[in-house]
Recover the amino acids of this structure.
């Protein structure tokens, strides 16, 4: 897992460093609803629960593991 | 004519609580002196535990002091979590920008090495932990952790906001590695007892009704039973009662709201929550001042009860009492 995006809200000279999500954190996270593994979409900065059909956003390196903040994935 | 019925309490509106907490966090009020005191107690309890940990999860807001205490005892990978984003995580609102001065650090909060803060994004190797802890936002009623992944969980004044405390504790236990420890501080049921009784007495005297105005909170006996029920081994609970002093009732209510701790009951489909009448508030204030004055006669006394929970996830191969020699 790699995170190559940078947060648009941070600037390089800021005293607060750009936060990226640590792979070690991603390894211990599961879907809060189904407790099944998540897929990391580095480009969209989302953690996807295929079982719950939800995409949990990662904002500024912080996974938001709240069901009501997640993007609902359309059924195919 | 009998008074109209008011909706009974059916639990907390957790979405509303989360929004209130987000506002409080954005204003940069965490940690308050109360939070610092509780974290100091948790750090003391942590010091009593002989076992070492590499991974730890800290639940709460403004928990840097506790993260530092964990790092000092060798935790290489601390993770912080709360139900809302922290104030510094969005880079939008800092406490200074919000016009709220941060209190200076207290007893055990070691100043962070500024050099460590610089390039934490590039430090991902196991030998160089990031200076800022990894953080996430979670719902304490539906934990996003796989089973057996973290060696210690510390919870700082967050679990009084759940409706399903047994479920939250069971999920905490599940996230722990076998032999892992849970150390939690939660707001106990004796908290705000003065406010609870004075509001109820004033309201029933003036309106004939006494709807719930303070959320129910767990007592120490129940907390111990819940720990056991959640499958924790060697469950220990104890309580500490802190007495705070506020100048008046308005200040108390304002400070509770500023903390995001305003009463947020689920409102059933039928019947809105009864508004608190001004005359009721005035009568409650009169009763409060008469019954529970501050220690010097000035202001009002406010009880804050903190319940400390301590339990282990059992080892797979029976119990190992040696790790608890310090207790």
């Amino acid at each position: 897992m790699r995170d190559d995006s940078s947060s648009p809200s941070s600037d390089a000279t800021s005293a607060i460093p750009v936060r990226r999500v640590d792979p070690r954190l991603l390894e211990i996270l599961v879907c809060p609803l189904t407790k099944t593994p998540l897929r990391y979409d580095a480009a969209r900065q989302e953690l996807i629960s295929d079982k719950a059909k939800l995409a949990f956003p990662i904002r500024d390196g912080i996974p938001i593991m709240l069901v009501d903040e997640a993007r609902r994935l359309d059924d195919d | 004519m009998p008074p109209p019925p008011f909706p009974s309490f059916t639990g907390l509106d957790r979405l509303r609580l989360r929004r209130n907490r987000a506002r409080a966090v954005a204003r940069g009020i965490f940690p308050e002196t109360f939070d610092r005191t509780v974290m100091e107690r948790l750090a003391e309890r942590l010091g009593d535990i002989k076992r070492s940990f590499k991974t730890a999860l800290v639940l709460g807001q403004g928990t840097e002091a506790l993260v530092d205490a964990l790092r000092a005892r060798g935790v290489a990978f601390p993770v912080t979590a709360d139900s809302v984003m922290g104030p510094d995580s969005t880079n939008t609102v800092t406490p200074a920008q919000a016009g709220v001065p941060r209190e200076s650090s207290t007893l055990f909060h070691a100043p962070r090495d500024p050099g460590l803060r610089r390039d934490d994004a590039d430090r991902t190797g196991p030998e160089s932990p990031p200076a800022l802890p990894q953080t996430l936002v979670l719902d304490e009623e539906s934990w996003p952790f796989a089973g057996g992944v973290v060696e210690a969980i510390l919870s700082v004044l967050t679990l009084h906001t759940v409706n399903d405390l047994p479920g939250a504790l069971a999920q905490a236990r599940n996230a722990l590695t076998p032999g892992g420890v849970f150390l939690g501080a939660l707001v106990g049921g004796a908290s705000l007892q003065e406010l609870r009784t004075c509001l109820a007495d004033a309201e029933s005297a003036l309106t004939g009704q006494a709807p719930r105005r303070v959320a129910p909170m767990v007592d120490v006996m129940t907390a111990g039973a819940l720990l056991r029920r959640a499958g924790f081994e060697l469950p220990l609970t104890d309580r500490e009662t802190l007495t705070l002093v506020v100048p008046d009732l308005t200040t108390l209510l304002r400070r509770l709201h500023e903390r995001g701790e305003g009463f947020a009951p689920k409102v059933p489909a039928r019947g809105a929550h009864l508004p608190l009448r001004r005359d009721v508030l005035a009568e409650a204030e009169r009763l409060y001042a008469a019954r529970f004055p501050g220690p010097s006669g000035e202001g009002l006394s406010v009880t804050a009860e903190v319940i400390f929970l301590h339990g282990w996830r059992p080892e797979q191969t029976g119990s190992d009492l040696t790790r608890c020699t310090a207790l």
